[in-house]
Amino acid sequence: MKTPQIPIAKEGYPFIAFSAFVTLILAILGYDLLTIPALALTTFTLYFFRDPERIGPVSDDALISPADGRVILIEKIIDDQYLLGQVYKVSIFMNVFNVHVNRAPVSGTVEKILYSPGKFYSADSDRGAMHNEHCAILLRAASGHRMAFVQVAGLIARRIVCWLEPDDQIARGQRFGLIRFGSRVDLYIPTQTQIEVAIGQKVKGGETVIGYLS
Questions:
Q1: Alpha-carbon span 77 to 62, nearest angstrom
Q2: 187 with 115: CB under 8 angstroms?
Q3: 18, 57, 182, 206: which has the highest count of C-beta atoms within 10 A?
Q4: Are the beta carbons of 90 and 195 closer than 8 angstroms?
């Protein structure tokens, strides 16, 4: 049986190539004490930018996790930024060991992309949620529901990557971007959603059901 290969996100190629080049040069020059940590860094960079395939749920009503990580917030709020009304906010924190490729939680049409530069506080902090660099995707789902998912940069992250444009059609589970080196994704979803996750739960992007839209 052939073992499936785990693909690598193309945004990682420059980081992997640079780290591998430095490692090679150190090895050629005979700097063994420096070569070992450089090789470890190359291996970690390769691991960080991994982009495995995921198999999502069958149900059309399922809303899936946009990211790997841990649920740090589930709260009913008045959203005055994106959907302008009462919503559930679900936040998922990604540490440096999680897969950082993000996936669409539902199928639908992109209405707006709202990018805002900002600071780089820890992504799991209140300051990070309010002031960090972020990119919001406003989506009208195929079911008619409107929602938003927001990529938030972290303490180490220095660039959010979003591949979507307004009016794009996107399928549930489709890759739409990534955030480099530590981050979070916030979901703003209808209050009619039947939430299926709990705070502290680990989730997988493209697989774990966050809730069911009614």
A1: 22
A2: no
A3: 206
A4: yes
Over the chain (214 residues), the average pLDDT of each successive run of 10 is 58 86 91 90 85 86 94 95 95 89 94 82 58 88 92 73 93 90 87 95 95 90
CA atoms of 143 and 213, how far apart (whole Å):
9
Chain Cα centroid distance, residue 176:
9
Q: Which residues are paired to 204 by β-bridges?
A: none
Q: Which distant-in-sequence residues (6+ apart) come within 8 Å of 12 by Cβ?
A: 45, 46, 48, 49
In this structure, how many other beta carbons lie within 10 angstroms of the beta carbon of residue 209? Answer: 19
Sign of CA dihedral 45, 15, 203, 116: positive
Question: Order of strands across the sheet with 175-179?
Answer: 101-103, 175-179, 160-162
- In this structure, the strands spanning 62-64 and 146-153 are unpaired
Query: Active-site residues: which are they?
Result: 183
Contacts of 31 by beta carbon, 8 Å cutoff, 6+ apart = none
Question: Do 111 and 149 contact (CB within 8 A), yes or no?
Answer: no
Helix 32-48 to helix 13-29 angle, to the nearest 10 degrees?
Answer: 170
Paired tokens of 139: 């989506």
Which residues have C-beta within 8 Å of that of residue 71, sequence separation ≥ 6?
Answer: 90, 91, 92, 197, 198, 199, 200, 201, 202, 203
- Ramachandran angles phi, psi of 59, nearest 5°: -60, 135
